[in-house]
Amino acid sequence: MASAQEYVGRVPCPTNSSLMGYTNTTLLNSDIITDMQFIYNGGDMPEYFHYILCPQTTFKVASLAPGQEMEGDSPIIPGLSNSLFTCGEEGNSEDNCIIEGGDFHFYFPDFVIADQVYIAGLTFSGSKGASIYGDAHPSSHVVFIDCHWKFNTGTSTVYVHFTEDEGGRRELEEKTRPYDMDEMKQLMSKKAGALTTKKHSRDLQTFFKYSMSCVFVDSSFIKNDDIIATIFNLGGAIELIGTELTENNVAELSTFSVLGGGHAFIHEGTSFKNNFARLGPIYIDNVSFLHLSRDNSGESNKGSKCDGIFLEDSESLCFDKNEKCEGECCAFGDETCDLYTDDVPSSSPSQAPKSFPKPSPTPPSPSPPSGQVSQPSTQGSTSSSSSSVAMNTQANTESSGGSCTGYCLAFTALFGAVLVAILVIMFVIFRRTQAKRSMDASTASAGPSDFEDPPVVDKEIA
Questions:
Q1: Which of 125, 167, 279, 360 allows an S-S link to 283, with CB 3.0 to 4.6 Å?
Q2: Model-level pTM greater than 0.70?
Q3: pLDDT tier at 420, thresholds 50, 70, 90
């Protein structure tokens, strides 16, 4: 990164003076603005911006909701694509970076494109609004790895939707303009207040926008107490891979709720246990899509409609307690309920990256996405995402007489970025698996390798 940038927040970490990181999220945001200003002024874009949170640190976040203001630091506001936020240098939750209290922990404003943002090894607790407030531009894609949410209360622990800024600040789509922290505080205060007062069911009846996408890998949601959902996805795309949801309580909808044309992928190793929600553990409304449900599980969940995945029928409006609510109840792992199909055309394979993205000491300008993504030739849940998206796009094309427009075209473009990032996740998991096997081998107790070669991708989205 260029030497012209002057940072105010990076300090030697208290538990490891050789590691430069952050102990204050307000100063972290100041340095994000510094990077935004650098790029805005024509500086060279690095491969990744890497923001290290100091291990063994609790970050106390302020509450900004009107009438409930409390002292503390600012929520983290990612302002740039290609950013890493990690606990320690490697992003391990065992290093105990805890973000606690406040209305929001990570705030994604609607005028920021946060594409290829990775958040690794953080623990989130005590939010009273939405720990992750995902209102970013629909092109945004965020990956959470080894992140954990517990004892959050509020509207939702994760809240994904999109409301385009009324001021029309769309110039950020072409070039990143640094945000102003005073402006952001006012905006977050307004949003925090709206979360506790808005009538969500009425908003959903007129929702026609696309939202950002998020992937949760090796993560957990435990003992959160939410109003509408623990994970609320309105018009976006959410993938759960090896993620645990246990003992969460939800008043209005389901633990994982997908509405307004949203997309859901529930991969292997994901489990729902001992959750209570009005409609059951998972709810997919009648204009949304269950793309993948494979090798997941659930037990001892409570709800009035379904103990598995509830697919609302076309005549129902289950988000409104006063309306008809009927549909199909699918068991966890029942592949007949999802939209995934293996019968999808493929293109020539290409090799995916083999490691977690790292910032480069002298980073080159990043290459633009090629639009080509891959599908492992062996069985793998991430490949299912590629196929299911392609299948749905193909279906939309056929139903419209051979042209992909509107909804179909928008999500085709969105998932081009989504799938590239998912491939990286596959190799994060692959890296961890290989590292563990190497340790086992050194003690002469290793078993045979499950993966002899990294997966290869071969799917192109039109």
A1: 279
A2: yes
A3: very low
